[in-house]
Write a structure and sequence with these properties.
Length: 165
């Protein structure tokens, strides 16, 4: 029996999450540019950070395109369909993962060790947010089907699907 107690908004908690992470990323870059974080700047090996940062940004764009354009997540939310195929078979929240990867990639481009604390905050914040909002809403809406999906697919980091017992 489905309860009307929880109603998931069309965009979930995405706007809140993305805006907060964008603000933190912007503040971090501002502090870096202004020289407040100069002690964390890498003197040598910046190219490694730049390459990894660029790869993460491209991976984030790919995840976003797969979720929004290919899998048409907005249409599925309106139709109240649970997507578990395509990119959603590798990660439960590819749109949020995309933003984590993009923001982390941007931070890596600064080659500043101090800013590397932010991706851990992004991950922890998303985990807490998802457990207390969207995951509850989706369990309420899709029941056992979603609970099985939870056990098989990672929340944020894309990985091969593991079969539940």
């Amino acid at each position: 029996m489905k309860s009307k107690e929880f109603k998931m908004p069309a965009f979930g908690v995405g706007p809140i999450y993305v805006i907060i992470c964008l603000i933190l990323t912007s503040v971090g870059i501002y502090l870096h540019i202004k020289g407040y974080l100069y002690q964390g700047e890498l003197r040598e090996g910046k190219i490694f950070f730049i390459i990894i940062g660029t790869i993460l940004i491209l991976l984030g764009i790919y995840l976003w395109l797969q979720a929004v354009i290919v899998e048409k997540i907005n249409k599925s939310v309106k139709e109240k369909k649970l997507i578990t195929s395509g990119i959603y078979s590798l990660v439960r929240n590819p749109v949020y993962s995309a933003f984590i990867f993009i923001f982390t990639g941007i931070l890596l481009l600064t080659a500043n060790y101090f800013l590397l604390i932010l991706p851990f905050f992004f991950w922890a914040f998303l985990t807490i947010l998802m457990k207390n909002t969207e995951e509850k809403w989706l369990k309420n809406e899709f029941g056992k089907e979603y609970e099985i999906y939870l056990k098989e697919v990672n929340r944020v980091i894309p990985w091969f699907r593991r079969k539940s017992k």
